[in-house]
Amino acid sequence: MTGKTSKYIDIHITKSKLMKKLIFSNAQEEERCSKYLDLKGVAYHVVLINFIGLDDDGKIKYKTVSDLYKYDKRLRNRLYKFISAFEEQIRAFIANSHNHGLSTLKLGESIKANLKNGSNIAFELEDLDFGQLIQIVEKFTDKDLKRMFPNSDEYVIQNLRAIKELRNAISHHRILLMYDDYETCYINGEEKNDLTNNIKNLVNMISDYYKKFLIESVNDAINDKRDVNFKLLDNLEIKI
What we know:
It is a single chain. The protein is mostly helical. It is built from 11 helices and 4 strands. The strands form 2 sheets. It has a two-stranded parallel sheet with strand order 1-2. The protein has a two-stranded antiparallel ribbon with strand order 3-4. It is elongated, with a radius of gyration of 22 Å.
């Protein structure tokens, strides 16, 4: 699929030995590689290289590695923006539900006490991470869940947990194309745990206002406006 051979690089290789495995098109590219090996780490690059695979001579073009990293990073940056918007969407629904006196809303004793002492619901929700927000949503009635996620089904909580894991992978700078610990999500009732379907899950869950922008942003990640020679390995492009 990615042109792998049986030749791989040991994760403990030194920087100088690794650079001898790389093929550079010019001195500037070699200098840039040396800088990124210091900034990102040798082991990080070895993981990328072993995912791609060396050629028959035990070498690899540095640009192939760099383009894979750049594409994955663009995906991470774009997805993080929309997951942040999704978190805001959840906070807004909870806050509005509280302000409208939703009797079934369970915020927890600590938040209830702070609100009773004059705190603002927006401030309280800002202090919660995504996992804590999901814990509140998990206590919603089926009717409230349907109000919050009109297009959802019986797998809404599991699908929220899948988005949480996608968010964690992005926050910890995992290479999304290589990550294999995605939570199971349900697309049209079918179990999925790959990157493409986890993104589709986010598309399904996010507000209709963002759907089109999210899809366009992910599909456009393949385009590198600053590098006309950018080329991603076959079969790795994420298309929604």
